[in-house]
């Protein structure tokens, strides 16, 4: 696993070098800024596609479409897979040639134990309980949360069932190196 930081992006590449994640810091605290994060995510995707594959999808009509369950894909390039996530002041985009799901989360204030009881399966609950500080519990919870959300984005099903019931199949997970107070996980198909 390779992680690099430069002034614009945090770059992550899968061990097989086929999937990448780029991140960019943007304003996102105010409601009007949050609306712009979605567009910024697609701009990051366009930059990745142009850099990696040499084409400008902005020249296409409706370059991004959605499946029946809402998972976005590139209309003219269904052989490529991408996913976008944004939280706090960061946007992230994953792009590769295998199905992918990505989730980043800012560690906002939540009821940590109450949330953990709702989303953790018994094995995850044990892991959560092993953390010996409140911050440690929060870090573990957000790692579990981003794993679950990245998997649901990988499958394209979204949150249609209880998070504590999710089992993982046909994928690998990689924890992203993130700024303080953020967690990130990528789920890549095998």
From TrEMBL:
4'-phosphopantetheinyl transferase domain location: 99-167
A GO term from the CC aspect: cytosol
InterPro entries in the cross-refs: 4-PPantetheinyl_Trfase_dom, 4-PPantetheinyl_Trfase_dom_sf, P-Pant_transferase_sf
The UniProt record lists the keyword Transferase: yes
Keywords recorded for this protein, A-Z: Transferase
GO molecular function ontology, one term from the record: magnesium ion binding
One Pfam family it belongs to: ACPS
GO BP annotations listed: lysine biosynthetic process via aminoadipic acid
Family: Belongs to the P-Pant transferase superfamily. Gsp/Sfp/HetI/AcpT family.
Protein name, UniProt field: 4'-phosphopantetheinyl transferase superfamily protein
Lineage of the organism: Bacteria, Bacillati, Bacillota, Clostridia, Lachnospirales
